[in-house]
Design goal:
Chain lengths: 387, 650
């Protein structure tokens, strides 16, 4: 047996040492992530008019911590990951309930829990959590089983609970990302297309009933979200300014730190949701397509990992994560270009913000974990070694 | 089997993954296409827009709704105001700018520090208020020196003004600058100098009074100078709130209190309209919208007469003998004593080893007399027979022991003790001696002046459990509708809103006869004889009388040694140890319409001597003005109350 053969046998058994796992980590994938983050820090540096503070520096430090987090997660045994998928989902769900209850007591919209050093946003954490929990559920569920309608009730509940809680926060952006990400996972798990139609119709029909259960302040929050005219500094104005800034960038842009529209404060939130506009203004079509290209590369890794993975759990996690990632950047870019209504979704690894960055690095860590453990044999319920 | 199922699934998965990848590729192409469209095809147009026309959006603050009295007299309005702002990013160095500005208007170090701090915290394009309420002279000097003051702008805005200054200040509340904790996402709150209601009606109806901001889209050149306005969306001005208060009565009542620490509630016993709700001393709410100086704040917060507290709703006092009407009604309703049955008073009352005193030996007294002379012995006996829980039930029926629900912040519920309450609160069982204290409105019994007004209103009304209200037009649903509705033809609150009182009319007659005697009884059978109504000069009202009840409540435990030494004159005691003087009354006795409760803290005399004359003066004024009439009758068309020279008041 050659060295490689010996290793691949151990790969299959999944009892690699941490050092062996580190060798398995796709460092090229990490490199591409670093490229995106570098572009992000450059834009944050520009957003602060050429200063590292207040955004670029903290973001770099957080990315560094995020890299450690990524590697740490990549090295966890995938079967352990699977075993604790539900637990993780449950904890995040409880946190979501906690913020909602705190919001009720505090009387205002609150999406985060103050941990002192970071404001924890459970709705962000729900994005990887639901991917793990659904993948766990469908591990070992074959095409025959999935034909039973009963089999679908549990995952539907698993999706509806957190989405409902996030809608009343209200954070419709995150709720959309989670619903679409989870829907994609059901699709990939083999659910028949006509069932999507039924569930979609049912959800639409249930809307008025759910609405009547909401408190007045919750209704108000959602109405303001749906009808930005209720906000005098309406989002239509933001989008118009965003389009002017973006369009005026032209083919090659106005140059780094030279984005007039962004720097004259015509652009709202240029360090978070509208950072892509600033990039497109300063770097032009070339720079913007470059960033999109980087995102596409990361997506391709997701597909490749899913294709190479030998277990259902890993395949579903890989594509679940990369779809969530896709939804992040697609919704954000489509929003700033005026293709879809304004929703607060950050540009992954570029927008300023702690929780989103950590969640993304955690998700990337999960993707790497699947890659490292792509050949591990896994039982129906994720046991060690049992078939 | 397992393998084939597995490979089926993998085939399906790969097929669907390919579909997903295709879909995502399509969407990414859409992004790229859109980018190409915006940046290349339309790029030139957007470049023009970016270079020549920069569109800026400005928020227009809506004028705050007014607060009016029941006849539309303004109590809170808006006034023109110039203020000087600085936009940090338009200037070079904020320190030098402030230094040159202080050559024109003197700025303290404290002010400069505050501006610098705010500037470092907020985003650079948000203006920061340096100083408000500039004089015309200051304003024009800043304008002239504008070239030397980069980033400094003059802004013209509205500030809150309370034309009647201290009148009804506790009811109105005040507005003040927005704190960090108040930020709700309403962009109006981030405007410099924006004020929100922080107390009273200003706070309760803040959302309605605030209105909604408008926007103005302006075109600015590259230096931020406005070229023209493109589009203007007017906001919605705040709605007016119309109170039930009659500002004349409010003012009259406050004046009648002089410098006392005292409070008054005047109520229409049919509609529940509060015609006056006075807490004395008061404060000038204009100082709050202008911003208090440190000395002003110190004066207000350390004054032992507590000018900032609304004592009419937040002051909790032993009701003293005013509570006897509650005990009497409970006694009649439970049949523990008949109205004509007498109790013999020899000046003291013995219960086991426990001896309680009456202020005088009254001899045999029936209920009407007992109320008239306020005989404690009679009520000790009745309270002993009743027990506290039955008294408490009647107290709640008359509106005591629970908040009245007029909606002002800080309203207290008072306290009506029960046996269970004492066990829970003190961990001690109820003892018979406690009943005696409750019987004369002392011990643990506490009530607010507003509750006392409600109590006497319900006794006077006799049929309905009237509830007080402070606002005539409820703004909220339709702001404009409410503003339009604030006209003279507001219907009075329908009587059917109130629940029936459910007390036997004959029993109420007995108690009211007693209350009549308190003021108008035969010589020797009254405690407030000096406070009869004085309408003798008025043919229409010359026989009108008022009914009421005095109360004098100790605020401290009286030691045995003190009791033996005999009562001390209030003048000998420090202010805060003197008794509280109370009087509750309604008028006219034959057809009650208005009720009043007066509580004077630590007065130089009892309820009959200090509080009753104040209540009498107020009821006279209320009857004269008769504010339940619509529209308002101007005060100068009504004959003043002139006490005849032959007035037999001592």
């Amino acid at each position: 047996m050659s060295d490689i053969g010996f290793l691949s046998a151990r790969l299959r058994r999944g009892d690699m040492t941490s050092g062996e796992k580190l060798l398995q980590v796709s460092w090229s994938f990490v490199f591409w992530l670093c490229c995106i983050a570098a572009a992000g820090c450059a834009m944050l540096y520009s957003a602060a008019n050429g200063k590292m503070d207040p955004w670029a520096m903290p973001q770099m430090i957080r990315f560094g911590i995020g890299l450690v987090l990524l590697l740490g997660i990549a090295l966890i045994d995938v079967r352990l990951l699977m075993r604790y998928s539900y637990l993780f989902y449950g904890v995040v769900l409880v946190l979501l309930i906690v913020v909602e209850v705190k919001g009720v007591i505090g009387g205002g919209a609150q999406r985060w829990i103050d941990l002192g050093f970071v404001n924890l946003q459970p709705s962000e954490l729900m994005k990887p959590a639901i991917v793990l929990a659904l993948a766990r559920y469908f591990q070992g569920v074959g095409l025959d089983d999935i034909g039973h309608p009963m089999v679908l009730l549990v995952p539907l509940g698993m999706i509806a609970l957190p989405v409902g809680l996030i809608v009343i926060q209200p954070d419709l952006g995150t709720a959309t990302v989670i619903t679409m990400g989870a829907g994609t996972m059901l699709f990939l798990a083999g659910v028949r297309l006509w069932k999507f139609a039924i569930v979609g119709t049912g959800a639409l029909a249930a809307l008025p009933i759910g609405w009547s259960f909401l408190q007045d302040y919750q209704k108000n929050r959602i109405l303001t979200f749906l009808d930005p005219e209720r906000d005098p500094l309406g989002s239509g104005y933001h989008i118009m300014q965003s389009k002017i800034a973006l369009g005026s960038g032209g083919l090659f842009g106005k140059g780094f730190l030279e984005g007039t529209q962004s720097h004259l404060n015509f652009l709202p939130e240029r360090q978070t949701d509208f950072i892509f506009t600033m990039l497109a203004e300063e770097m032009g079509l070339v720079g913007a397509l470059g960033l999109i290209g980087l995102y596409v590369i990361v997506m391709i890794y997701g597909y490749a990992i899913a294709y190479r993975c030998r277990h259902q759990y890993g395949r579903l996690v890989a594509l679940g994560i990369s779809t969530t990632f896709f939804l992040y950047f697609f919704i954000n870019m489509a929003m700033v270009m005026g293709l879809i209504p304004v929703v607060g979704v950050p540009l992954p690894l570029v927008s300023y913000g702690g929780t989103a960055l950590f969640t993304l690095m955690m998700s990337a860590g999960l993707l790497m974990n699947i890659w490292v453990h792509r050949d591990v044999q896994m039982g129906v319920r994720g046991g060690f070694g049992d078939l | 089997m397992m393998i084939s199922r597995d490979s089926d699934w993998v085939r399906m998965f790969n097929r669907r993954a390919a579909v997903l990848a295709g879909g995502q590729a399509l969407l990414v192409s859409a992004l790229a296409g859109r980018l190409y469209y915006l940046q290349v095809i339309e790029g030139e147009r957007y470049r023009m827009l970016a270079e020549d026309n920069r569109i800026n959006l400005r928020l227009l603050p809506p004028p705050r709704g007014r607060i009016l009295d029941r006849f539309g007299e303004p109590l809170a309005v808006n006034q023109q105001n110039f203020r000087v702002l600085i936009i940090p990013e338009q200037g070079d160095d904020i320190k030098t700018t402030l230094a040159s500005l202080s050559q024109i208007i003197p700025l303290t170090d404290h002010e400069r520090e505050r501006v610098r701090k705010e500037a470092s915290r907020s985003r650079g394009f948000l203006p920061i208020t340096i100083r408000e309420n500039l004089s015309w002279h200051e304003m024009s000097r800043i304008q002239i020196n504008a070239p030397d003051l980069p980033g400094v702008v003059i802004d013209e805005g509205l500030t809150r003004f309370y034309p009647q200054h201290e009148n009804a200040a506790h009811v109105l509340g005040y507005v003040a600058a927005v704190d960090e904790a108040d930020l709700t996402g309403d962009p109006l709150l981030q405007l410099p100098g924006f004020r929100i209601g922080k107390a009273g009606i200003e706070r309760v109806y803040d959302m309605a009074l605030r209105g909604r901001g408008g926007t103005s889209q302006v075109e600015v050149n590259a230096y931020g100078r406005i070229i023209r306005e493109l589009e203007r969306k007017e906001g919605e001005p705040g709605a007016d709130v119309r109170l039930t208060i009659d500002s004349r009565i409010q003012h009259f009542a406050a004046e009648s209190l002089g410098a006392e620490s005292a409070s008054i509630a005047v109520m229409d016993i049919r509609t529940g309209d509060l015609l006056a709700l006075v807490s004395n001393p008061s404060f000038d709410a204009n100082a709050f919208s202008r911003g208090l100086t440190n000395e002003e704040w110190k004066d207000l917060s350390t004054n032992d007469h507590k000018p900032l507290s609304n004592k009419a709703i937040a002051g909790q006092y032993s009701p003293g003998s005013t509570f006897k009407m509650v005990v009497a009604l409970a006694a009649l309703e439970h049949g523990v004593i008949a109205p004509e049955q007498t109790v013999y008073c020899n000046g003291m009352y013995r219960l086991g080893n426990y001896v309680k005193r009456c202020h005088k030996a009254h001899g045999s007294v029936d209920m009407v007399n007992a109320i008239g002379v306020s005989c404690d012995t009679y009520f000790y006996e009745v309270a002993r027979r009743l027990g506290v829980d039955k008294i408490a039930a009647m107290a709640h029926r008359l509106g005591l022991g629970e908040v009245t629900g007029i909606g002002l912040p800080g309203e207290q519920s008072g306290l009506i003790p029960t046996e269970a309450w004492k066990q829970a609160a003190r961990g001690e069982p109820w003892v018979p001696g406690d009943n005696l204290n409750v019987g004369i409105g002392q011990g643990d019994v506490l009530a607010t002046p507003l509750q006392l007004a409600v109590m006497v209103s319900r006794v006077a009304n006799g049929q309905l459990a009237v509830k007080p209200r402070l606002v005539r037009s409820e703004p909220g649903a339709g702001l404009v509708a409410a503003a339009n509705a604030a006209t003279d033809d507001m219907p009075p609150q329908p009587d059917s809103d109130f629940e029936p009182l459910g007390i036997n009319a004959a029993h109420l007659d007995v108690v009211r006869a007693g209350l009549f005697n308190v003021v108008n009884g035969p010589p020797g059978a009254t405690t407030a004889a000096a406070s009869k109504l004085r309408f003798r000069g008025d043919p229409e009202r010359k026989d009108w009388t008022m009914s009421g009840k005095t109360g004098t409540a100790a605020v401290r435990r009286i030691s045995a040694a003190e009791r033996d030494a005999g009562p001390r004159e209030p003048e000998e005691l420090p202010w805060n140890l003197r008794d509280n003087a109370l009087f509750v009354a309604f008028a006219p006795s034959h057809d009650p319409r208005y009720a009043v409760a007066v509580v004077v803290e630590h007065a130089l005399g009892g309820g009959g001597k200090i509080a009753a004359p104040i209540a009498r003066d107020i009821l006279e004024e209320v009857l004269r003005l008769d504010p339940s009439r619509q529209p308002r009758v101007p005060a100068d068309q009504i004959a003043a109350v002139v006490p005849p020279k032959s007035d037999d008041t001592p």
